[in-house]
Amino acid sequence: MAQIVGGGSPVNDAERRVIAHLRDHAPDDWLLLHNIEVPRDDDTFEVDVIVLTGHALCVIDVKGTRGRIEVAGTRWFPQRRQAFGSPVTKLRGNGRALKGLLTQERRELGRVYVDSLVVLTGADAELVDPAGRDSRHVTGLDGLIGTLADVSRVRRGHTTDTTPYGTAIIEALNGSVRRSTAPPRFGSWEVEEELGGDTRVTEYRAINATVPGSETVLLRVYRADPLAEEEPRAAERRLITNAYQALTRIPAHPCVVRARDFFAVDDESRFVLVLDDVHGRALHLHLSGSPDGPSDTLPAEARLDVVEDVLLALAHVHANNVIHRALSPACVLVTEEGRAMLTGFDYAKPGPRAHTVANELPNVLDTHYAAPECQAMPERMTAASDVYAAGVIAFQVLTGRLPAPGAPGPDAGPVPGEASPDEVPAAVMDLLRRMRDPAPGSRPCAAEALADLRRARRPESPPAPGPAGPVPVPDVLPPPPPAASGHPTDPGVRTDGDGRTRRATAPEGTAGHAANGPPGRAPAQESRVPAQEAGAGADGDARSTGEAGDAAAAPPEREPLFGRLRSRIRRMTGG
Description:
29% of the residues lie in helices and 20% in strands. With 575 residues, it is an alpha+beta fold. Residues 10-121 form the NERD domain.
């Protein structure tokens, strides 16, 4: 049983489980310190657990994240949650800072190796790290004791026996660290879990402390230097506020993540962006960790839905004069309902302004999705470069691979076993080529691309052909216009309610209607036939095929008139 030598209150159940596991299963000579704050320059960082074993001092970060977690670069992509910065990267930095603090207190502690370990407590947690960059520093609860006891983790040049240094380490920690008494809180938002981050921003999942049981939100907490000179501080603030400024320019939309709030802590050493906690998977998880690997198991129709949502979001963003500028699969979330949502607006351009944050883009851009004109000059990012990135993403989603480098041309064949371009409408593949045109001016805008995609996915059915055989005639036809109108009794001529005359067309659904076409479509070429064959009106004009039908119906239309004449004659003659 390990000895607990101090600490604050655990923040969540995951931390309690790790502390209890170490207390109950670790060797008796191990020392345990938990939930402390360690000073670093003018700042502090939080440490969940510190364990002093017989050969090293280990800094532990506890994560309750569940399910499959894929590592790509410095980002973690969990299932059904938004991606966040690798906690391993941050934890190793904290370990180096702690080592510097110990050495500053006692120089002889420079020989002690400070290890770092992320513990995943979820029973179904699985880390997938193709590059092997983070996996060495990650373990589950069942492997925690064995990993901590592994002497081979000690780097060369450090001691493998900490026994002579145990007292000095505890004294140095006691003189430098302080216990954490409460979970972090930013405004009314109380942190439930720290997701990760880097030296610039830390991401948390939080709830509203004043509303118990409220839904969770995502906090992006940006660090700032409150003691910096005015000019660099102003530049830092412009970068920090950029995402919020961009999102406030964009009205609410189901395909764009929503910003709820933005504020600074009292001394302006932190700025907090509050976002919806989208319950979905990053689009990256539907693609392989390798840029040219196969895509995930999304059916073809669902992939087209994702592409359509991305274009829908991009058209909405551009319509509000915002350019994303860093579009990649990491910036697209696919919700549990199958809706794609656009995120990642930290480097967006919210309309014309006097300053720019484009100088930061080279540090974050994925060159696979950068338009040719922006590869060396990110400041040239435009709405057209967003469309290019969307075209690359769409191609990767639909085919399972990135397009071949160079100018768009006939794309390569399908990846074996995966969706091929043949399973996608040819018009869609043509649209993706146009979106990736090397010339920005030749690319469609996002709204045009969206309209073209919808037309390609749902082409209009051709108009139904007219009925064959004789044209049907109603049983009762309206009487001809009175003789006072000045027009001959011609069934092809009618008088409107406003007194204007026009030549009648066949009723809707007849051959005449089919010839003219339904409303909103261009009329078909009218076929003309000789008057003596098709039937001429009183004015001698040749009629169309539809008018011939009206001419053939003339005898039934005159019959009511003869009936009225016979009635008048009988009344006049008394017969």
